[in-house]
Amino acid sequence: MAEEDIAEEMGQLRRENQELKAEIERLRRMLEEALRASKRQAAPFSRRHPKAQPQKPGRKSGQRYGRRCRRPVPEQVDEVVEVPLPSRCPRCGGGVEEEETVSQFQTEIPPPQVERIEFRIRVGRCRCCRRRVQGRHPRQTSNAIGGAASQLGPRALALATLLNKGLGLPYGKTATVLEQAFGLRVSRGGLCQAMERVGRRAEPTYQALVEQVRGSPSVTPDETGWKVGGQLWWMWVFSTPQVTVYAIQPGRGFEQAARILGADFAGFLVRDGWAVYRRFVHALHQSCLAHLLRRCREMMLVGGKQGTEFPRQIQAILQQALLLRDRCQQKQISDHGVAVSRGRLEARLDQSLQRCYRSSQNRRLANHLLRERDALFTFLNCPGLEATNWRAEQAIRPMVVARKVWGGNRTPRGAQTQSILVSFLQTCRQQLQPASPLIQSLLCSSQPKVLDLLASTR
Known about the structure:
Blueprint: H1 3-39, E1 123-125, E2 132-134, H2 154-166, H3 171-182, H4 188-214, E3 218-228, E4 231-239, E5 244-249, H5 254-261, E6 268-271, E7 284-287, H6 289-302, H7 309-329, H8 335-353, H9 360-371, H10 378-381, H11 390-406, E8 408-409, H12 412-430, H13 435-443
Parallel strand pairs: 3-6, 3-8, 6-7
Antiparallel strand pairs: 1-2, 3-4, 4-5
């Protein structure tokens, strides 16, 4: 081999060596950042890279001020307080003469006061069957007497349910709020038993919500880890535009999903790429494009110079599909134009998937897309169908926060109570209904009843 060839080869090896060192350094920094991120709590404490020139906090001047809003004047005034002028000027001590009277309004919480009610219950016996009979007042939450005669009222239980299940406060902090705000002393164990009683009253309504999810034309499911008694269970969520149902179950398989959704579900299923969802063979599937786009971005970030062409192609195809959907919603393209453009996108995708890739990450992505091929562009065939599972992601986020705060449930019964009550509260939130009066009506009912949470929308 000539000296010139040897020198050229050595130069090429040096350049490749420098590129590999730079690639190793880049991957090392990314690995360190990933390890640090894995140890952080799941809360938005800080961005990884703060802005170099952040905007000044507070309201902007001129046209950038934003929506102007102020607290409205109350329609009803319960108390009028006269505020006299001081006799002397606070600055110079001179006399003061009155010019006008102006008004200031204040909306205040009245001093908390706990009602202690005694129900004088008449007890008798049937003349025919000789069974014991006792009266019941509409404000009572239970027929218990004797050792269980002292109980919390329906308003107190409704507030505790909202604090614990709706806002994610642990039992200890819920008890603290009740004591400091209202002077109502209650133990954590007492609250736990009260939550279980509320859950039993709301269980028929929960089963009705499950049936409404099964009959919905479109459902968005998702799942996340949950601890029950220190063991790994799964928090499932099934969300529709009207109803949300949670279910804490010991597995993450088809059996658990079908327990809520029904094995023969035949509506639209907008889900991520979890293989279990593909077993709903009667459903029309839409795979979440946001997950795929995020995966493509991560592959392009860690792929370096090689192996990024395939995820970049997939990202472009998916983004063009979303752009086509937006144009269709804005009536900028006809149905025939949508069909033609969709066919071209599918042809580009099929062409990309027919190639053989050396990178293992590209092969895994290609195999996943082959499995999800029929579920990628369903939203283009069905106007109004979501292209991502954002609805379930939003619904499951409060549960992730609650998991960080107090870990999970201690018993399966507690997990069932959690599923029932958070489903009840989330559906009320979707329907813009106050949950407290509904909980009170359940507690004060002498017989189990089913509340129609969608009645106000019909």
